[in-house]
Write a structure and sequence with these properties.
The chain is mostly helical. It has 10 helices and no strands. The protein has a domain at 63-195: Tetracycline Repressor, domain 2.
């Protein structure tokens, strides 16, 4: 399985149309209930064209999730453009992540379907993509450490924790906790993550030092 199945003979316009309608349809009815014929009809192409471009429904689904991941990445890095400092970059990225999903609930549904149907079993193309994205954020953390802005930490583990926070906020928001939007919940979570909750000298340590 791969996230892309593109050939030189394909029409970019048809491919985009199929992916747009795949996002719409998978989000509306879920992977199992999606009929490829419906996607084809909505995209204005034949069902055979969909299969020629994407192989089968599962390949189409993975291509759809890959498309959403790429859109999310572009949105996050656009939000960080021109921003100085690792903490400020991470905050901008976190809020962009939430804003992206808040702005178009279809994207959130695609991620939910991904987890619900395949339980984290991603194609190799997706694994490589995630590693590339992690590496880009590791560079931000390492630069922050080099600049003295961040304390010495394991950069990769910090990035994984940051992404865990973002995904956790997504899941948490599905329960409409205290009527927060995803963006509001993410803002609170990211700010606490970046500031930390440990005082320079915690009160309990002061008491034990007396």
């Amino acid at each position: 399985m791969t996230g892309r199945n593109e050939t030189a003979s394909e029409s970019p316009e048809k491919r985009r149309a199929i992916l747009e309608q795949a996002i719409r349809t998978f989000a509306e009815v879920g992977f199992r209930s999606t009929d490829v014929q419906v996607i084809a009809d909505r995209a204005g192409v034949g069902k055979g064209t969909v299969y020629r471009y994407f192989g089968n429904k599962e390949e189409l689904f993975w291509a759809t999730t890959f498309e959403v991941l790429e859109r999310l990445e572009r949105h996050m890095f656009a939000a960080m453009e021109g921003i100085e400092g690792a903490r400020a970059k991470l905050r901008a990225a976190g809020l962009a992540h939430a804003g992206f999903l808040d702005a178009d609930p279809q994207y959130l549904e695609i991620f939910v379907q991904d987890r619900a149907e395949f339980r984290g079993s991603h194609p190799e193309s997706h694994q490589r993509y995630h590693e590339k994205l992690i590496a880009r954020f590791v560079e931000i953390i390492e630069q922050g450490i080099a600049d003295g802005e961040l304390r010495p930490v394991d950069a990769r583990e910090t990035v994984l924790s940051f992404w865990g926070l973002l995904y956790g906020s997504v899941v948490h928001s599905c329960y409409a906790v205290h009527n927060y939007t995803l963006t509001e919940l993410t803002r609170h979570s990211v700010d606490i993550f970046l500031k930390g909750i440990r005082a320079e000298v915690p009160q309990y340590e002061k008491e034990h030092m007396k």
